[in-house]
Amino acid sequence: MKKIGLILILMLSLWGISTVKTQALTLEPLEEVLEASSPVEASDTGKLASSSAEVDQKIQEKKDSDITETGGKQKSKLAAYLDEHPIGKLTWHNVLQHSIRKAILNGLPANIIVLMLLFPLIASIIAIGRHIVGLKGFGVYIPAVLSVAFVSTGIITGIAIFFAVLLSASVARSVVKRLKLPLLPRTAMLLWVVTFLILILLMIVSWIDAAALLSISIFPLLIIMILTENFMSTQLFSSQKEAMSITFETLLVAVLCSLLISLESVQQFVLLYPEFTLLGVAGLNIIIGKYTGLRLLERVRFESIIEEEE
């Protein structure tokens, strides 16, 4: 029995030694392969890191110049402008100025205050365009919000997304029309198709490395996509041509307002004189409401009739 035990122990020892040698021989080529492949992997990783850093830098530059971004440098510029223009002691006519400066010191972004002060002015300009000039559009709120979205995306990029959404909406309408759904499910299905098409567009854009579109935040994109419902609702009660006309006039007003918001001098003025801005806009709205004559575009349209009556 002792001999059998010694033989088994000897056989196990030999098997263990042979296994260790086999593993060592197997690991040597594996280490060589890993060493050979590591420079390639390091090169690929370096390229990806470099490309990602370039994209991040472009996105950060876009955020720094965007007044709608609370994390950009634009709020610091506006706060610095206030520091360069100090105000006197607290009186009845500068209460809001003191309150704004105190809020900024407490951490409220200056660009948010500027947008809040500019938004009523934008609405008044849209009211002038519709009530006095005679432009058509999707109310007052939609063009006003759309103009802020264009400031965030950039006007060229925003217009490109705008037309992409309209094209997607037209495709979605032709697809969903065949399903013969009721109003609410049809509207939800339209948004589903538009969302899917815009998602595909964004993925294609990511392949061609368009930093202007890659830096877009979700909320401006959703605001532009909201127009789909307005566009489709207009088509239900009017012709395709009329719906397109109203949509493009909405786009025109939104672009003009976004240009106004983007002016640094306008931003600085409303921040430095908030009382004058709010009271002036309120007075402007009252003046607009007092106008009861023909709109300017109606005068052009019926010019011959007006001349005959005169």
Please characterize this protein's 3D structure.
- This protein has helices at about 1-65, 75-85, 95-105, 110-135, 140-155, 155-175, 185-205, 210-215, 220-235, 240-260, 265-270, 275-290, 295-300, 305-310.
- It is mostly helical and about 300 residues long.
- Helix 5 packs across helix 10 and helix 9 packs antiparallel against helix 10 (about 240-260).
- The termini are far apart.
Mean pLDDT reading: 76
Radius of gyration: 32 Å
* Overall tally of domains: 2
What series of H and E elements makes up the topology? Answer: HHHHHHHHHHHHHH
Strand content: under 5%
How many helices? The count is: 14
Largest sheet: none
The number of strands is 0
Outline: flat
What is the terminal separation in angstroms?
135 Å
> pLDDT under 50 segments (min length 5)?
1-34
